[in-house]
Specification:
Blueprint: E1 2-8, H1 16-30, E2 34-39, H2 43-48, E3 51-54, H3 90-100, E4 105-110, H4 112-123, E5 128-132, H5 148-169, E6 172-177, H6 184-192, E7 197-199, H7 207-219, E8 225-230, H8 236-239, H9 243-256, H10 260-272, E9 276-279, H11 292-310, E10 316-321, E11 324-329, H12 330-333, H13 345-352
Parallel strand pairs: 1-2, 1-4, 4-5, 5-10, 6-8, 6-9, 7-8
Antiparallel strand pairs: 2-3, 10-11
Helix pairs in contact: 1-11, 5-6, 7-10
The protein binds 6-O-phosphono-beta-D-fructofuranose.
Length: about 350
């Protein structure tokens, strides 16, 4: 008999259910008897002992279902050693729940912060396996996370729809794409939809260069332009400030504008007089059914997690390297982000296509 706990933590994304289904199908293939405990709303469920005992049937018919049947919440890693409002020691409570249920392993579907916590629990002696979840594709050590391609599809579709209106009306549009710290979705969706300007957090922009790119298009007889702007895009002036001042400048801008895209629109208007429209697809990028690519990798990630449990190879994060699904120590990935670099081939290719990064 194997007793496996599972939870989905952090911001949701597509293919969480598909991954859990993969884990469960894999487990039933490996073991005669399996008991699955699903913790509700992420680590909260493990802390407070809120769980449901689930059967294989509960994971049937959920391959294409968005969201997560277990619910999710954020339990910030930096607050892990701060007691809950009720005074519970979070790490101690999680270990107690795990031991009370006599679990053989805990499978954590989560992004960076959640995998840091998974690593902490592994260091505390629990058997843990992580599966790389996030639309941002910023988990260090994996080429791909599940959720990313589905989010790119949605962001691309949003820009495609704006493209036709921008063209009909001869307008300049900004589409704000998710990604506070990293610009992978914006970069991919921007290229996929033929955006003229892509602004991402890793490549700070100079508004004069952005306006120059737009003016170049106007001079070339193009009646419209599209900017794909990540929600964490940052100007060169702000990026070079010391950390404290930079945080303050970002906070002040957040008071003044609903989001970064509106700030960029305002700056363009002030500098060049151009009238800009803003569209923010927001959380639609995390919603709905996973795209076929995500269904495939999440099913493979789930199968790999089951294989690791069978081999009792714990403390691992399932990852994708090239086209191979493999695993690395949780500790190797914990605390690092996979950023876009200005030297990445994909950025150089985009520049060759005439896309401006405003740098
Ligand atoms: O990490 C996923 C993500 O969607 C980011 O792209 C985005 O910046 C953030 O979560 C939004 O978080 P929330 O759902 O808490 O507003």
């Amino acid at each position: 008999m194997k007793r496996i706990g599972m939870l989905t933590s952090g911001g949701d994304c597509q293919a969480l259910n598909a991954t859990m289904r993969g884990v469960v199908k894999g487990l039933y293939g490996c073991f005669k008897e399996v008991e699955i405990y699903g913790f509700l709303e992420g680590y909260k469920g493990l802390i407070y002992g809120n769980y449901q005992k689930l059967s294989a049937d509960d994971f049937s018919g959920i391959l294409t279902k968005g969201g997560t049947i277990l619910g999710s919440s954020r339990t910030p890693f930096k607050e892990l050693d701060i007691p809950t409002p009720e005074g519970l020691d979070k790490v101690k409570s999680m270990k107690e729940t795990y031991k009370k249920l006599k679990l053989d392993c805990l499978v954590v579907l989560g992004g960076n912060g959640s995998q840091k916590t998974a690593n902490r629990l592994s260091e505390e002696g629990l058997n843990v396996i992580g599966c790389p979840k996030t639309i941002d594709n910023d988990i260090w050590g994996t080429d791909m996370t599940f959720g990313f391609q589905s989010a790119v599809d949605i962001a691309t579709n949003a820009i495609d729809c704006i493209h036709t209106t921008a063209c009909s009306h001869g307008r300049v549009f900004i589409v704000e794409v998710m990604g506070h710290k990293v610009g992978w979705i914006t970069l991919h969706a921007g290229i996929a939809s033929g955006a003229d300007v892509i602004l991402i957090p890793e490549i700070p922009y100079d508004i004069k260069k952005v306006c120059a790119a737009l003016e170049k298009r106007t001079k070339a007889g193009k009646g419209f332009s599209i900017l794909a702007v990540a929600e964490g895009a940052i100007s060169k002036e702000v990026a070079k400030l010391p950390k404290k001042e930079r945080k303050q400048a970002v906070a002040e801008a957040a008071e003044k504008y609903p989001s970064v895209a509106y700030e960029v629109a305002d700056k363009i208007k002030q500098y060049s007089g151009m009238d800009i429209r803003v569209t923010v697809p927001g959380h639609t990028q995390r919603g709905g059914s996973p795209c076929p690519y995500d269904r495939v990798i999440s099913s493979r990630f789930g199968a790999k997690a089951a294989e690791l449990i069978k081999k009792e190879d714990f403390g691992k994060l399932v990852v994708m390297k090239g086209s191979e699904v493999t695993a690395i120590p949780l500790a190797e990935s914990a605390g690092k982000l996979k950023y876009v670099s200005a030297d990445d081939d994909i950025v150089k290719n985009a520049k060759m296509l005439g896309i401006s990064f405003g740098d």
